[in-house]
Amino acid sequence: MPPADLDDPVTAEYDVFITPELEEQIYLLQYPNRDREQPYNDANNCRPLEMRLKPEAGFIEVDVPVNVHMNYDKRKGITWGEAMRKAQDSGESGFGLSAGFSGLSRAAVPTRGAPTSRADIEDMELEDDAVEQMLLRFEDANDKGHVLNRQTLGGQIMKDEVGKPSYMLAAFRGKELHLTKVTGVVQMRPQFHHLDAVKELGDATKRRERGTVDGPKANEPRAVQMTIKSEYGDEAAASKQFLHLAQEEKWSKLRYFDEEAEEAYDMFHEKLFVDETEEAPRLRTNMTNEQYLDAISCERHDPSDTTKKKKPLTKRQMQRIEDSEESEDEPADEQTQL
Question: Considering 23, 84, 250, 269, which has the largest number of Cβ atoms within 10 A of its Cβ?
Answer without folding.
Answer: 84
